[in-house]
Amino acid sequence: MVHWSAEEKQLITSIWSKVNVEECGAEALARLLIVYPWTQRFFSSFGNLSSPTAIIGNPKVRAHGRKVLSSFGEAVKNLDNIKNTYAKLSELHCEKLHVDPENFRLLGDILIIVLASHFARDFTPACQFAWQKLVSVVAHALARKYH
Asked: What would the pLDDT profile of 54-91 be if each residue is shown by its tens digit?
């Protein structure tokens, strides 16, 4: 079990309360698909992913980004029970979707960049550390069924 200090919890929830899930989710997923193009193979049903412009404007990318970040909100709500919170999603991504678990870490790193760009003044080194810890814990929970 991960230990969260009161300060870490406050820093995470403070930023999360300001997040526009639709906007930041779409941006994070689009950046993942652009920066790490091999991840596109998991999204073949999304249609045109042929260029950064196509990816950013793709409504399926936007919708799935919102879905992913909404799910991430469950981690924020359940900081003390992230492993169980993501048990079913881990099973889905492992057994049905066969997503490379490294992608969870990559998306978490990109989410940190997106949050830092949107909330630069509030995204202090201590806040970045807390969020980095959170995305790492989420990535590990999602990869759990792979082990």
From this structure: 999 999 999 999 999 998 898 899 888 777 666 676 66
pLDDT < 70 stretches in the chain: 1, 84-87, 89-100, 145-147
pLDDT for position 72: 86
What lies within 8 Å, CB to CB, of 19 at 6+ separation is 69, 115, 118
Predicted model pTM: 0.88
Taking the alpha carbons at both ends of the chain, their separation in whole angstroms is: 17
Q: Which residues contact 34 (CB under 8 A, 6 or more apart)?
A: 52, 55, 56
